[in-house]
C-alpha cells in the first residue's frame, strides 16, 4: 500500500475537486443546450462527436482561437484581471465542500474534502462576495456604458440577495451550532434518523436560500446584469476569446457550487437513507472489514451527493427556459421587501421552536 503523508492525500483531493469543478462547468454548457432543445422540442447539439458530446471541446477550441480584442480606452490590466478574478473565486469556493465521508487505505485516512475549516460557510460567503469584484472590474475596465451598467446591477443585486441568503443560513446555524460544512453534514447522518435532513426542519429557509442562489449566480429570472434586451451583453459586452470563456465558465462553476452547498445544508450532503444499516449488513452478513464497508458507503454517498447536485443544476436550467426575467424594480422589491422579512420571520420562528424543544 502506498504510504503518503496526510498533506499528500489532501493535495490529491484538492486537485480532483478543482478538476471536477472545471469538467462539470464545461459539460454544463452541453447540458444547457440539450435541456433547452428538449424543452423547446427541437434538435440540440449533434455535430461534434456522437450525440454532440464533444461540443464543449469544440467551444473551448473556439474560445482559445478567437481574436483577442481590447476596446479603445480600456484599462488593459484590469480588463484581463476581471475575468481571472471571477474564475479564481469560483474555483476557491468549491474547496471547502465535503464531497464524501472518510476513506481509509491501510494506515492512510482522509476526508473527501479539499480543506476543512471550522468556518467553512463563512469561507464560501467571503469568496463568493469577492467574485462580484471580478464583474465590477471587468465592467468598469471595458470603458463601455452598457458594461458599466451591467456591473452596477450585478453589485447591487448581489448585495441585496446576500442579506436574505445569510439570514436564511443563520436559522441552520442556530440548529447546528457550527459553521463547518462537514459538521453540518455529519449532524444530518444520525443512524435511523435520515429524515432529519435540514429540508424537513427548514423548508422556508431552503426556499429563501434557493431563490437567492438564482440571484447570486445571475441566472434567469434574475439575469439582469447581462440582459441582452437592455444592455447588449451586460458586463461582458466587450469581451471575446478566452476572457469571455472565463466569465461563462465561472458562472457555471458558481451554479455547481450553489447546488453543492444547498445539497450539503438542506439535503444531507453525502448521507443517504439506511447507510448505516447497509454498512452493518456488509460487516455482519458478508464478513467485510469495517474499513472496507465504510469505504463503500463513502463512495455511494459521494455518488448520491453528485446526483443531488445534478438535480439542482437541471432545476437551474429548467427555470431558465421556463420563466421570463424580472424587471429591475421587481427584482429589488423581491429582495428587500419580501425575502428579507421572510428570512427574519424564519429566524424568529426557528428560535421559538428551539426554545420550545420542538427542534434541536
Automatic annotation (TrEMBL):
Keywords: Cell membrane, Membrane, NAD, Oxidoreductase, Quinone, Translocase, Transmembrane, Transmembrane helix, Ubiquinone. GO terms for biological process: aerobic respiration. One of its GO terms (molecular function) is quinone binding. It is a multi-pass membrane protein. InterPro entries: NADH_UbQ_OxRdtase_su1/FPO (IPR001694), NADH_UbQ_OxRdtase_su1_CS (IPR018086). PROSITE patterns: COMPLEX1_ND1_1 (PS00667), COMPLEX1_ND1_2 (PS00668). It is an enzyme of class 7 (translocase). Its EC number is 7.1.1.-. It catalyses: a quinone + NADH + 5 H(+)(in) = a quinol + NAD(+) + 4 H(+)(out). GO terms for cellular component: plasma membrane. It is found in: Cell membrane; Membrane. The chain crosses the membrane at residues 6-30, 78-100, 120-142, 163-182, 252-276, 296-319, 331-359. Belongs to the complex I subunit 1 family. NDH-1 shuttles electrons from NADH, via FMN and iron-sulfur (Fe-S) centers, to quinones in the respiratory chain. The immediate electron acceptor for the enzyme in this species is believed to be ubiquinone. Couples the redox reaction to proton translocation (for every two electrons transferred, four hydrogen ions are translocated across the cytoplasmic membrane), and thus conserves the redox energy in a proton gradient. This subunit may bind ubiquinone. NDH-1 is composed of 14 different subunits. Subunits NuoA, H, J, K, L, M, N constitute the membrane sector of the complex. This is NADH-quinone oxidoreductase subunit H. It comes from Hymenobacter metallilatus. The gene is nuoH.
